[in-house]
Amino acid sequence: MLRIQENMQILSNLTSKFPTFLLTGIPGLESVHAWISIPFCCLYAIALSGNSMILFVIITQQSLHEPMYYFLSMLSAADLGLAISTMSTTLGILWFDATEVNLDTCIIQMFFLHGFTFIESGVLVAMAFDRYVAICDPLRYTTILTNSRIIQMSLLMIIRSVVLIVPLLLLLKPLYFCRENVLSHSYCYHPDVIKLACSDTQANSICGLIDLILTTGVDTPCIILSYILIIRCVLSIASPEERHKVFSTCVSHIGAVAIFYIPMMSLSLVHRYGPSAPKVVHSMMANIYLLFPPVLNPIIYSVKTKQIRKAILSLLLAKQTELFV
């Protein structure tokens, strides 16, 4: 049945101006997709509820209206966007075997997927700058990170994301697809799509490289530089207890950086240097890349940030009290 579907797919792409693609679930485990959907549903539920909870407590709790928590709310919003942008196709495959997607739908999904990825990368840089100012120049913290400046920074992240992603996606429209258009993941991923094109993709590759340089290539050195300066400031503190206390405020952010960049770079390396790798490796790396940050970030910040933990607990206790009254 799958072979017939793929043959019809090839014929469609040869005769239609609007190609369609076949998304991939978990290769080799198609017969148990319904069971696999259970942990996926749990992960999506954790991602949606955890990030929504953090957004809600930051918005409603006056004590959390500070720069650090504003940036955390941006991170939660970006994580929500990442989770929602792929949830429909991933669960659609696992529940209903809905694998077909057309190019326009693919482009819309990639706009949100890559857009929120670029925004999250920018937010992590802003959070690193926030930690640098708080630790190395605490007396000027409130004058440097004013509300208006935070709004400007957030607008800059959104504008950068849109300016970089729109040309990248518009370059997909003229491409000619003439083969079996089976994607490696349960969602549309730009390197995965252009790999299937039969026409020249040099412009797409150059645009993708420019986007990579202007996001990861800029953001990663900025985060590293921030932590080099932070470490230098922390080492100048005489008391070991004070050093530990100051540096512990960075642990959550370091964890967020690690769970965002490591899966992303691993997926890029798999696409670049691992074409012969088993399909299940591509699929697992793609799901880890998308689900790890939205699932783990709320857990990390809830556990490691005392103010967030207290706000969430007080909210849950208040709701519980209302139920019993």
Descriptive terms for the model:
Rhopdopsin 7-helix transmembrane proteins, 325 residues, single chain, 77% helix, 2% strand, 13 helices, mainly alpha, two-stranded antiparallel sheet, globular
Please provide a written account of the structure.
The chain has one domain (33-175, 183-323): Rhodopsin 7-helix transmembrane proteins (Rhopdopsin 7-helix transmembrane proteins, Up-down Bundle). Helix content is 77%, strand content 2%. It is built from 13 helices and two strands. A two-stranded antiparallel sheet has the order 1-2. Residues 50-301 form the G-protein coupled receptors family 1 profile domain. GO terms for molecular function: G protein-coupled receptor activity; olfactory receptor activity.
The average pLDDT is 89
**CATH superfamily heading:** Rhodopsin 7-helix transmembrane proteins
Query: So how many helices?
Result: 13
CATH topology name: Rhopdopsin 7-helix transmembrane proteins
CATH class: Mainly Alpha
- What's the Cα radius of gyration? 22 Å
Give the assembly state of these chains.
single chain
Structural category is mainly alpha
Describe the global form.
globular
Q: Could you spell the SSE succession in H and E letters?
A: HEHHEHHHHHHHHHH
Largest sheet: 2 strands, antiparallel
Distance separating the two termini: 58 Å
Summarize the structure.
The chain has 325 residues and is mostly helical. Helices cover 77% and strands 2% of the residues. The longest helix is centred in the middle third of the chain and has 34 residues, at 103-136.
Record the SSE blueprint.
Elements: H1 2-15, E1 20-22, H2 33-60, H3 67-96, E2 100-102, H4 103-136, H5 141-144, H6 147-170, H7 190-194, H8 202-214, H9 216-235, H10 240-248, H11 251-273, H12 279-304, H13 306-324
Antiparallel strand pairs: 1-2
Helix pairs in contact: 2-3, 2-12, 2-13, 3-4, 3-12, 4-6, 4-9, 4-11, 6-8, 8-9, 9-10, 11-12, 12-13
